[in-house]
């Protein structure tokens, strides 16, 4: 079973190239609207409520979805968390995001401002022209401000103490979460932050192989 968590502000559309390539049952976990001042562990518990306690398989999170996936994994330890374009713990937060956190600038500019500068977002997220850029603009258009602002704050102030182990799939050209000194299990050559769409074939091969390993280990 594949439980799929899209990235910040995104939905099932980011998986449209990946889903047909996965060998097994899939379920995209839709984002819930956070309550005021809701903690990340509490939010993850609400997300986990739709996953059976005895569930097994892969919990696949893209970007912020990987962070939420690791929090869900605390409550559903029989799942194996796979991170796509995400980080395994808060110590891996890159320098740019650390600077944004320290300056507090993210509090001054509403996330929906990104809708006014889609080309800047295209560069930062590594989105290619054509289909990817059209989808990116759709996601920006549909971005829910309350959720997005909450998620950015929770990402920047994530307490990952005692978070479980995960498998990381990262792109060599990811500007949001660039490869650092921490070892990465799978590096996708030329992959940017939007590689779940652009490199779906390579990522699906990795996920199918991991799922097969899980099935073999279960017997």
Jot down its keywords:
39% helix; single chain; 8 helices; 6 strands; alpha/beta; 219 residues; globular; 6-stranded parallel β-sheet
Please provide the count of β strands: 6
Query: Count of helical segments?
Result: 8
List segments where confidence is low: pLDDT < 50 over at least 5 consecutive residues: none
Question: What's the N-to-C terminus distance?
Answer: 16 Å
Strand arrangement within the widest β-sheet reads 2-1-3-4-5-6
Topology (SSEs and partners):
Layout: E1 2-5, E2 26-28, H1 40-48, E3 57-62, H2 64-75, E4 79-84, H3 95-103, H4 118-125, H5 131-142, H6 145-156, E5 167-171, E6 186-188, H7 195-198, H8 200-218
Parallel strand pairs: 1-2, 1-3, 3-4, 4-5, 5-6
Helix pairs in contact: 1-2
Short overview:
The chain is of the alpha/beta class and 219 residues long. The chain is built from eight helices and six strands; from the N terminus they run E-E-H-E-H-E-H-H-H-H-E-E-H-H. It has helices at 40-48, 64-75, 95-103, 118-125, 131-142, 145-156, 195-198, 200-218, and strands spanning 2-5, 26-28, 57-62, 79-84, 167-171, 186-188.
Folded structure, characterized:
The protein starts with a strand and ends with a helix. Helix 1 (40-48) crosses helix 2 (64-75). Helix content is 39%, strand content 12%. The protein has a 6-stranded parallel beta sheet with strand order 2-1-3-4-5-6, with helices on both faces. The protein is α/β, with parallel strands linked by helices and 219 residues long.
